[in-house]
Specification:
Two copies of one chain form a homodimer.
Chain A: H1 4-9, H2 12-21, E1 42-47, H3 54-64, E2 67-70, H4 77-83, E3 88-90, E4 104-110, H5 121-130, E5 134-144, H6 153-173, E6 178-184, H7 193-200, E7 211-214, E8 235-239, H8 244-255, E9 259-264, H9 269-278, E10 282-285, H10 293-302, E11 306-311, H11 326-350, E12 353-362, H12 365-369, H13 375-396, E13 401-407, H14 413-416, H15 420-428, H16 438-449, E14 460-463
Parallel strand pairs in A: 1-2, 1-4, 2-3, 4-5, 5-6, 6-7, 8-9, 8-11, 9-10, 11-12, 12-13, 13-14
Helix pairs in contact in A: 8-16, 10-11, 11-13
Chain lengths: 471, 471
């Protein structure tokens, strides 16, 4: 739970030692705090030819009260910003040494109009000029159109190329800067706000190198909600809520206004009760793997219904396959994957999960890349990705979204018990040079659970600080 | 080009030193050699419920002259094998210590009938029993159905879970063992042979952790060809053929019977001429980035036409974006990406690339994951992925396939110049604990160029020894 190296190199003495020895100096990430403004400072805006998303962007920047500057390549920004009542000015590049220039909190580039590989040079010009102006824990957001929606192979190709740029920027920016790519479908411009807010906010501190698609979901995007309490009046279930990441999820959903129903195994009742008491939630003791549990959960929740269901509960029973017991295989698959399937079936059949609701599942980078000693766990977590992809079209008829988050190295009691060398490798092998916090996973889940995230479904988002480990 | 650590730990003294210090001991990979049998030894066959691909598998195993054993869970194999005239027997697990038991060359599991997460336990049983019997440089192949083709979310989920199992097996098997997953579409059973041969062969030594899809392409699967010289009578163009990976591609395509036309820049004419002379190929000096080149290439090739076009030429000009020159950005995008687009347009418009032909592009793991100092290169290589995805449906009308390979750390003159620490990290951070050879990339390209690979299109296959680095 405690990254002593991170603390050390951020102390006055440690910073000197690290500098003189050339050691990595992970940044203390700027994270969301209820007692600090979520949004402040300047967004620097860039754009390629024929940008199509500046209007939607200006709307959001105005709503959240940030100011902006326009790179010379984004000349269209100025009249738009004025129309949206947004304070704006001209971009002035930082001096090569950094230093005295006013720094910006976010670089946002509208690449939506790029339809050939040659036009990618507009990204070069913007990030070449602007990257040094970006603050610590700053944000890089590239906006594009889903490649497969483009009319020509060349436009598809150019939009697909954005991934390479964004991920490289995430790897070279350092200083706690996160870089992400958002593909906005034609017609989904009005559905971008919740996602843009998340990626501009300190809530997304440990989400980097990700590609997110926003589709059209006009039928289910609510007309209005309170941005400070977006889950007000909603009921959210979190499995495995007694401790660790599950408890963090419960906390964040409660902070956003939800009434949380925490589920955990009967042996964790005391911890679960305590966790739920803290947030005014409801504790339900269930073994999610028991065959009778899905019907019992549906019955327990039936009267009031559920708006958000977070499948977080999971276990590991690691062994190489030759040494793994049949029970270790079966239990991990059953608890991490099959139980989710049975519970969703019961809730959907009973109509307990309301139309327009949200399902969020916890996968893992092991489910993406596989892992030594985790054939069972990786199968279950890869299966979770399949669940999200397969259920999304089916649930869309009810306006329900289903998505997954895949945590990387997160500082928990579990990782605290890892051997030192493995733990250090896991912590440092990512663009943030540090592990994430349970709250980082929870904030990503809250974004996916948000009423404004109606256009996001069938997707997998890693919360891994852009971990090197992939597939 | 020379991995001295690999050589050292595989010497008698080095092996003792490595053992006593607990150092990793990368295996000397078994690679294809013209003077050794490509296929020999035993395939151990396993299956889940209702396997649908055993018939196709038996056909291939019989053709290549391997023998087989059936795991108790694959009882259907025995009568099938008999029908295909295949020598077969019962599987006997190796003793826990390994040792005296006859070892097998490949473990092949037919998971095509698995339609629920609980049925995944059949994979556990087979690999639990069989993994210790697998030889050094052995092969693990899991056969499934494309998840998105399944009728129910649960079947989709279970098929998707196979990726987690296969990738974990690749990471824990060590000893030079490669593990891959092949999804065979319904109706594409007759199109599996070229792909199964590749993944069973020492040709795929450095391809691990990959997922390949075989679709239906009956119209373009040739009735017959010579498996030892599948490209006999064909003309194959390779760009950047003077040296390195390009020269290796030219060699392998020539060894498979193709007449190779090597293209490289005029300044490399001497090297190109020498490389082409060795294989009886034709040398063409062109700067592929010059605007007039596409038409000139089309004109030069027009009379006889082309069957295979390999876009291999590429450059790097690495710098972090703030320090990168506009020319470094432009040149890398233009040579690595835009030039490919212009050349394909010219060849397709002129009909120079024959119907039923093959395009293979060289991408990179940088294009997948991004890389520090390579915003330009990663953009170009991510764009190549977009090219393959976007062109595939369009080219299918002509029976042309387009695919990409993404090399990981390959031992070349370029990597020999890297700083030691970076080079060692690149070499060891994969399941083979070593870099690949240019021939490994070339063999993967030859598989995609194969007339029998008509069902493989729009895909990206990494040649990276299951590098940790992903996206």
């Amino acid at each position: 739970m405690n990254d002593s190296y991170l603390n050390f190199v951020n102390s006055p003495l440690g910073a000197r030692v690290a500098r003189s020895l050339g050691l990595p100096k992970p940044e203390v990430l700027r994270r969301y705090r209820a007692d600090a403004p979520e949004f402040d400072g300047i967004v620097a805006v860039g754009a390629g030819p024929s940008p199509q998303l500046l209007d939607a962007l200006a709307d959001v920047v105005a709503h959240i009260g940030m100011t902006s500057v326009a790179h010379p390549g984004a000349g269209l920004w100025v009249p738009l910003a004025n129309r949206h009542g947004l304070m704006t000015g001209r971009f002035e590049p930082a001096a090569p040494a950094g230093g005295s220039q006013a720094r910006v909190r976010a670089l946002v580039f509208d690449a939506s109009g790029i339809d050939s590989s040659a036009q990618l040079d507009s990204l070069y010009t913007f990030f070449h000029d602007a990257l040094r102006s970006l603050d610590q824990s700053g944000r890089i957001i590239v906006l594009g159109r889903p490649p497969e929606s483009r009319a020509t192979p060349r436009a598809w190709t150019a939009q697909r190329a954005l991934e390479g740029v964004t991920r490289s920027l995430g790897k070279e920016a350092r200083r706690g800067i996160a870089a992400n790519l958002i593909y906005v479908a034609q017609g989904a411009e009005s559905a971008v706000e919740a996602t843009l807010r998340f990626f501009l906010s300190p809530r997304s501190a440990y989400v980097s190198g990700q590609t997110v698609r926003i589709g059209t979901a006009p039928a289910t995007l609510p007309a209005d909600f309170d941005w400070t309490q977006p889950l007000a009046g909603q009921r959210a279930v979190v499995t495995g809520a007694a401790r660790g990441i599950g408890a963090a999820i419960a906390n964040v959903l409660a902070a956003q206004g939800a009434h949380v129903i925490g589920i955990d195994i009967p042996s964790a009742t005391a911890a679960l009760d305590a966790a739920m008491r803290q947030i005014g939630g409801t504790a339900l003791a269930f073994d999610i793997a028991a065959p009778e549990t899905p019907a019992q959960i549906a019955a327990a929740l039936d009267e009031l219904g559920v708006d958000v269901f977070v499948h977080n509960a999971g276990i590991t029973k690691d062994k190489t396959i030759a040494k793994m017991s049949a029970a270790a295989w079966r239990d991990v698959i059953d608890i991490n994957l099959s139980a989710q399937e049975r519970i969703d079936d019961a809730l959907l059949e009973a109509g307990t999960l309301r139309n327009g609701g949200r399902i969020v599942c916890v996968s893992s980078i092991s489910g993406i890349a596989g892992n030594l000693g985790q054939t069972n766990y990786a199968a279950s977590k890869a299966g979770v990705i399949g669940r999200v992809q397969s259920m999304a079209p089916f649930l869309a008829q009810r306006g329900i979204t289903i998505n997954a988050v895949a945590p990387g190295f997160i500082e928990t009691q579990m990782t605290a018990k890892m051997p030192l060398a493995l733990r250090e490798a896991g912590r440092r092998m990512n663009s943030m040079s540090q592990g994430g916090q349970p709250a980082d996973v929870a904030q990503a889940i809250a974004w996916l659970a948000h009423p404004g995230s109606a256009g996001v479904t069938g997707q997998l988002v890693r919360v891994c600080g852009q971990s090197l480990i992939g597939a």
